[in-house]
Amino acid sequence: xxxxRAQADLPYWLYLLECEGGVYYAGIARDVxxxxxxxxxxxxxxxTRARPPLRVLAAREYPNKGDALRAELRLKALPRADxxxxxxxxxxx
Length: 93
Hints:
By secondary structure, the protein is α+β, with helices and mostly antiparallel strands. It contains five helices and three strands. The protein has helices at 3-8, 32-40, 46-50, 65-77, 80-88, and strands at 12-19, 24-29, 53-62.
């Protein structure tokens, strides 16, 4: 019975992938490594089925899904040149 509660306490990660063609893909997951392989095997997002990922460029932990989703929206709104710097910023703001 404690399983759902323990699952709810797990953090979410915002991640940035470099994909074929040099394009970036951003998403959130509880386990970035597992999600990377889902993208690689074609069971992730439609975007990464067309442009398979090459590597994880960056990832940042968030305490919950809501915070991770808000950060994902902020990241996706940035120009490509600023996306990596987003992860090195000190504040999660």
